[in-house]
Design a protein that fits this description.
By secondary structure, the chain is of the alpha+beta class. It has helices at about 10-15, 20-35, 45-60, 65-70, 90-110, 125-130; strands at about 115-125, 130-145, 160, 170, 180, 190, 205-215, 225-230, 245-250. Among the domains are: about 75-110 and about 160-190, no CATH class; about 115-145 and about 205-250, HSP40/DNAj peptide-binding domain. The strands form 4 sheets. Strands 1-9-8 form a 3-stranded mixed sheet. It has a two-stranded antiparallel sheet with strand order 2-7. The chain has a two-stranded antiparallel ribbon with strand order 3-6. Strand 4 and strand 5 form a beta hairpin. The chain starts with 8 loop residues before the first helix and ends in a 5-residue tail after the last strand.
Length: about 260
């Protein structure tokens, strides 16, 4: 299951990146009604989901905040930290690193298609010949409703790594050119989680299972592949979801 680093407000509200203000408003009210605490008085997760919806809507309904979010994500642009020396070479290197980090940050927050999922379906030879309808229990990931994907208790953002300053890599001087290596403090994540969320163990996401009903056409063979469009992992930053690929295994004793 992938680790999700920060909340995706488009995914939380279930809207496209190009959604209009009215579409965002309608999606929020529809979901807020579904997760209202009055309908789930004993369900703490419903309350957390409503809190997640409120945060997503407060950002996407405001044009200025939405523009900033589209560009930089939930935690904003990378922090500029000037070098501790006055040497021109160090300042130039710091400026270049910061510009590269900003460019990577912008690219990382563009709409991304979700990953495809693979599922192996065991059915009887008779079902392969005649076709059948089956229910699939498909695992996927979603944002943790308790920390809103931040990985820390209370929905607080993680702290930038004190060693790499959020760059995920550190510079090691060389004889001619410096080399970049993965930061060993944050393990290349750029942030340090000091108070991990107990609900998701600091991962920012939890595993959920969806039940899908699909029709298997008559005449499928061993190794046949069925594509279920849009049922893969959710897209990021308003991107489309991936697909689910079901691989057929003909067996006399299907599970």
């Amino acid at each position: 299951m992938p680790t999700l680093r920060e909340p995706d407000y488009y995914h939380i509200l279930g809207v496209r990146r190009e959604a209009s203000p009215e579409e965002i408003k309608q999606a929020y009210h529809r979901l807020a009604t579904r997760f209202h605490p009055d309908l789930h008085p004993d369900n703490a997760e419903a309350e957390a989901s409503l809190r997640s919806l409120n945060q997503a809507y407060s950002v996407l309904k405001d044009p200025e905040q939405r523009t900033r979010y589209d560009r930089w994500g939930a935690w904003g642009p990378p922090i500029w930290r000037p070098p501790s020396t006055s040497a021109a070479r160090e300042w130039m290197a710091a400026v270049v690193d910061h510009l590269l980090a900003a460019r990577e940050h912008i690219e990382a927050h563009k709409p991304q298609r979700g990953q495809d999922l693979r599922y192996t379906l065991a059915i009887s030879p008779q079902a392969c010949v005649q076709g059948c309808e089956v229910r699939l229990d498909v695992p996927t990931a979603r944002w943790c409703p308790q920390c809103l994907g931040s990985r820390m208790t209370g929905g607080k953002p993680p702290f930038p790594c004190p060693q790499c300053r959020g760059a995920c890599e550190v510079r090691h001087p060389g004889w001619l050119l410096a080399t970049m290596r993965r930061c060993d403090v944050c393990q290349g994540e750029g942030v340090v989680v000091t108070d991990p969320c107990q609900r998701c163990a600091g991962k920012g996401s939890i595993e959920v299972r969806r039940t899908l009903t699909i029709g298997v056409p008559a005449g499928v063979r061993q190794g046949s592949r069925l594509r279920v469009q849009g049922e893969g992992q959710p897209g990021r930053w308003g991107g489309p979801p991936g697909d689910l690929y079901v691989y057929i295994r003909c067996t006399a004793n299907p599970a």
